[in-house]
Amino acid sequence: MLHGEVTRTRALLLLALALTVAALPASGSAAYAAWDWPVDGGEVAAGYLPPTSPYGPGHRGLDVAAPTGSVVRAVAAGTVTFAGRVAGVGAVTVDHGGRRSTYQPVVAVVRSGAEVSRGEPLGRLSPVGSHCGPRACLHLGRIEADGYADPLALLSPQAQVRLFPPHGPAPVPPEPERVVPSGDLLMPVDAPVTSRFGMRVHPVTGVHKLHDGTDFGASCGTPVRAADAGTVSSVGSVPGYGNRVRIEHGGATATTYNHLASFAVGAGEPVAQGQTVGAVGSTGLSTGCHLHLSVLLGGQPVDPEPLLTAP
Predict the structure, then answer these.
(1) Domain containing 81: what range?
(2) What's this model's pTM, rounded to 2 decimal places?
(3) Is 261 exposed, middle or buried (0-12, 13-18, 19+ CB in 10 A)?
(4) What does the DSSP assignment read for 118-149?
């Protein structure tokens, strides 16, 4: 009798286990591998069209229309394996463990080898090399072990799909808010870079942490220029950063100017590109006169240097 009960109990446990396994999604299914959309509020301008041969014609990705300067984000966590230019067009590739995502045209703010999380900014959408001219759009690619595949199959169904007519003009999009043109952030001071963006030991606290901007070795009192036009969102003292000016440029882009000796603007004021916003100082946790410039995309700090141009 006891043996029969044990047998029945074991059978019930095996049945429960089998049902549980059957209910789980298959490995690699969309439930586990779904991607986030790489740009906010984008519209699908052109879908994936597989080529008939490895080198034949086709559309090996998804075109997502978005305003120039839009923040381009990683669709999933992974490692940046390429960030640079291909035939003059900025591109980024992220490896997600055998599956890769590609993004172009992009002004990258990440470097090859960087680990990125889902939704982390990779750069900004550039108008140079757009597949959707005269509109700007992001070409998102998906590469599996056996070749190209449709990115839309992994994307959550949140974007508005509006395929453009093959003949005639493309529909006119709503006028977007002003955004920062790609690669058009002005150098805030004429001075050498003394400390770059990235992990380092803080010279004052001795803590190993992210240096969330670029330091310029300028003399105290040197005028500091706005990297681009925008609106001053805050002016004041911030722990560690000393006297700071923050400017919002639209398109989820902001810049901050830190360790200032004095301010030349007030909160709420519009500023033009190149306008003086303050003077270099050594306030906050600082070892000497310098400017610490930070660039924020979607609220996250990114490397300013690839985005800066000389006056």
Answers:
(1) 34-161
(2) 0.54
(3) middle
(4) TT-EEEEE-STT-TTTTS-EEEEEEEETTEEE
